[in-house]
# Entry
Amino acid sequence: MGARITRRDFLNGVALTAGAALIPPEMWAAAAADLEPQDATGYYPPAKTGLRGSHAGSFENMHKVRDGAFWEDAPKPVDTGESYDLVVVGGGISGLSAAHFFRKAAGPKARVLILENHDDFGGHAKRNEFRSGDAFRLGFGGTFSIESPAPYSPVAKGLIEELGIDVPSYHRHVNKSVYRSRGLKPHIFFDKETFGADKLVPNPKTSGFDESGINEPAGESAFESFLKNAPLSAQAKRDFERLSTEKKDYFPGLSSDEKKARLVRISYSKYLTEIVGVNDEIVKLYQALPHPLFGAGIDVVSALDAWGLGMVGFDGLNLDPSPGKGMNRDAIRNDEADKYFFHFPDGNASIARLLVRSLIPAAIPGTSSADVTLAKADYSRLDSSSSPVRIRLNSTVVKVAHKGDPATAKEVEVTYIMGKSVKTVRAAKCVLACWHVVIPYIAQELPAPQKEALAFAQKVPLLYSNVLIRNWKAFEKLSVNTVYCPGMYHSSVNLDLPVSIGGYECAKNPEDPIVVHMSKSACKPGHPIREQHKLGRIQLYSMTFETYERTIREQLARMVGPGGFEPARDIVEITVNRWPHGYAYQYNSLFDDFWLNGGETPCQIARKPFGRIAIANADADAYAYTDCAIDQGYRAVQELMSK
Ligand SMILES: Cc1cc2nc3c(=O)[nH]c(=O)nc-3n(C[C@H](O)[C@H](O)[C@H](O)COP(=O)(O)OP(=O)(O)OC[C@H]3O[C@@H](n4cnc5c(N)ncnc54)[C@H](O)[C@@H]3O)c2cc1C
# Structure
C-alpha cells in the first residue's frame, strides 16, 4: 500500500469563541508593557504545544475582514511613520525568499519589512520542539522535506545551495538501520468500523522508490501474509490478488491516448468498481492512499493520476509511459526530482530559519546549514529598527492600497492589526506572499477578474499531529514503524524519520522518547473536491484540542495498545498543527475543465502584478511545494524591480 515516508511515500465541535478569550496571554502582557509580543521575555513559539498551526489569535481578524465586520469596530489606524523599500505580506518561504531576492537585487541596505499574522515565521514550514527528561526532540509542524515531483528550478536550487544545504548529503544523516535492524516495517491498520475488526497487518506493497531510505521492499511473503491476515472478505481478497497480478486490457481496441483520455475523466474509485469490477472493501482500503498528495481520497482523484502514481489495476492497459494530458503534476514521475530529497528533523522549517538567518543574522546564531538544527532563535531580534530587514509577527494585514492612482503612485500603504492596534506603514513596493484567497479582501483595488481568480485558490486542509511518546517499545514489539490507516481519523501514523544532523540526535533505542507523526486530510468523500476541502476546513477550525487529543489517544491505543502502549502513561506531549488553509490547490482533471482544455489558468490571472504590488505564494503556480514558493517569490520581485 505504498507506505513510503516521503510525501509520496505516504501514498503507499464547538463553535469558535471570539474576541478576548482567543488572544494569547503574552499578547496582553506585551501590550501592557508596550512591547511587541515577540519582544517579551520567554517568547518562543516552537516550544508551544497544544493547538498550533493556524493557532488562536492568528485568523480571527482576517475572518472578520472576510465577513465585512472588521472595520465596524476597528480603531482608527495609527501611522507608524515607518517607510520601507519593500513590505512583504506573509512570512512563509515565499515571503522570506522574496525578501532574500529583493536584497540581492536592491542591495543589502534595502529596507524590508515582513508582516506575518502567526506568532512564528515560516508559514507552513513550522518547527515543533519537545522535551522529555534530558531528551530533546524536534518535529515538523508542516512542510516535511525538500521534495517535489518536478525538478527544482535553477532559482530554487540556487537558493537551497546558497543556504548551504547539501541535498545529496541526506543519506549521511539518515540512520537507515534504526528501524531496519529491529525488523520494523510499514503496516496497515484495519479498523472495526470500516472493516469489521481492528487489526494491524504488514503492508504488502513497500516496493518501489523510497527516498527517505528507511524501508526495504516488503517481499513476496508479505503479500501472502497480507492475504492470510487482512480482515477482508474472501471476495475482496480475490479482488486484491487479481488487481495486483492480472494484466487485463479493460479498454480493448482503444489506443493508449484514447485510454488516457477516458482515465483522466473518471475517478480511480469508479475505475475500480465500474471498470475493473472490484469489491467495495477494496475501494475502502485504497480510499485514503492519495491523502498526502491531494488532501482527498480516490473518489476525487482521476484514474489517470492513480496510474501515474503507480497504483494497481493498469498493468494490462499497455499505456504509453509518457504523462497524459490533464495529469496532476504530482502524478508525473521524474527520476531527477525523486532523487532531490532532504529532510531536516524540523522539516523545511530549517529552510525558513536559514533564510531568516541570512536576512537578520542576529536572530539565529550559527554559520552552517547543519548547525541551524539546534540553533535557538532570538525572537526579540526579529523586528529591530537597527536591522535593514525586520519581521513583525502577530500582525494581520487588513488593507493594502496605493497612495493615489496605482498607475502613477510612488507608494503603497499597508495597514495591519497587532493585538488591538491598527497601524500603517508605507512602502515603495509590496509583495503579497500571503494566501491568495485573502488578497481580494485586503487589496480591493485589484481588477475584478483578478480577484475572482485569486479567490479560486482555496487551500487544501491538513492536520499534522506530533505526539511525543515516552518510548517506542510497543512499536518495536509489533514490528511497526509506519502505518497506513484508511478508516481512521489520522490516515497515517509514523515514527519520526531517524535523521541526526548538526549535533541533533534522533531516537535510536526503543527506550528513548520519540515523536510520532500523525497526519490527516480533512475531506468528505462523496462531494466534489473543492467542496470537500471547504467542509474539511470548517471541521478543522471547529474541533477543540481536547477532542483532537481524545482522538489521538484512542487511535494510538487501538493500533499499538496490543504491543503494550498505554496513552495515559506513554504520551508526554501533543502538538496538533492544524492547517485549514494548507496545500496550494492543484488543478484536477475531474473538476477543472480549464486544466484539460488549455487556456489561461486561474493562477496565471491571479498572479499578475498591479502597480507597485506583486503577488507571490505557492498559490501563484497552484503547486504545493517549497520550490514553487521560492520560484514565485523570485518572480514577484523581478516584476517589481522595473517599477
Ligand atoms: C502540512 C503541509 C505539509 C507540506 N509538506 C511539504 C513538503 O514536505 N515539501 C514541500 O516542498 N512542500 C510542502 N508543503 C507545501 C509547502 O509548505 C508550501 O508550498 C510552501 O511552504 C508555501 O509557502 P508560502 O510562503 O507560499 O505560503 P505559506 O507557508 O502559507 O506562507 C504564507 C504566509 O502568509 C500568511 N498570511 C496570510 N494572510 C496574511 C495576512 N493577511 N497578513 C499577514 N500574513 C498573512 C500566512 O499565515 C502564512 O504564514 C506542505 C504544506 C503543508 C500545509
Remarks:
- The first helix runs from residue 25 to 32.
- Residues 234 and 634 are 55 Å apart (CA to CA).
